[in-house]
Amino acid sequence: MELYLDNAATTQVSPEVAKKVQEFFIKKYGNASSLHSIGQKSGKELKEAREKIAEYLGCDISEIIFTSGGTESDNLALRGLAKASPDKKHIITSVIEHPAILETCKDMGKNGYKIDYIDVNSDGIVKVEDIKNKISKDTLLVSVMHVNNEIGTIQPVEEIGKICKDKGIYFHTDAVQGFTKVNLNLDNIDLISVSGHKFHAPKGIGFLYVKKGTKMSAIMTGGGQENGFRSGTENIPGIIGLAAALDVDKKENEIKNSRDKIIEELLKIPGTRINGSMENRIYNNINVSFYGIEGESLMIMLDKDEICVSTGSACASTKLTESYVLKAIEVEDLYIHGSLRLTLGDDIIGNEDYVVDKIKKHVAKLREISPFKFEEIGKEVKNEK
Please, are residues 330 and 380 in contact by the beta-carbon 8 Å criterion? Predict the structure, then answer.
């Protein structure tokens, strides 16, 4: 039995989605820009897919710009706004953003931009008042993610967006982890990044929502597709798959119940803490730390049991450093090193006890060989929630 509990990294393409996509690889393979009948058929399907996505999001079809995924959407949002308004040189973001935002801001900071990084509280929630206080006449935009990819906390993006709207500056949110899982009101949001492979669509497809009236320039030139904002032949199979994935049943309530059951049992292990807010948390995320062990070792042991988990963000897994997200919420080092991220799909339903039993077994084994003996510090370290 293989259990895949790393859905924040990527999701399995739904069989229904895969079947739909295959048609556009084998039969409906035309270039949507071509004038012949096969191309026109692809163009019609592209239009219908865009309409479906726009209806789902609650926006106009002209506000959807298809991209290759979240990273490109984030780059287009920040760099496109900057290119269109070169006189504005100030960007505000949070310390726990995805690397697609943080690395872009870092790069822009080398080219004359002032970047303010807003702290979060111990639950991983950004301090809204701090954002408000940092806004100046030179501020171009605020970018704060909808749901954190490591600890699953849901940020108050509508509240942040209202502040930005009142101040007359742009607000962008990276909604890669939250889209289709957490409702999002567009009233006070100008730009939204989405990636299809996080909700059972294929890899290599996403979109950027850009509200009408937003002053933005293209950062890539070519044939002028996507209203001139994103040149390049459209990924029709991917776009069709993204639209089809909107119909996939997420089984939210059942997965949330599984999550809560697993958390309750894991907290019975001495020296265990759950990272991030429990109240403002996406329904399928568990980020847990076990004092004094190595999370990588625990991950490998679980993999041998055919339980696939992560120790943090998959997008940053090649950078063997401590989690900057857990650092930001002031988790102790001996907890950070023993952290594990489980992001659940519907295969967890009914298998909760198996996962918990394996984790308990391996944590006990790792504690036996760890130089950091939990019993030595006794009651000073308590289970935390």
Answer: no
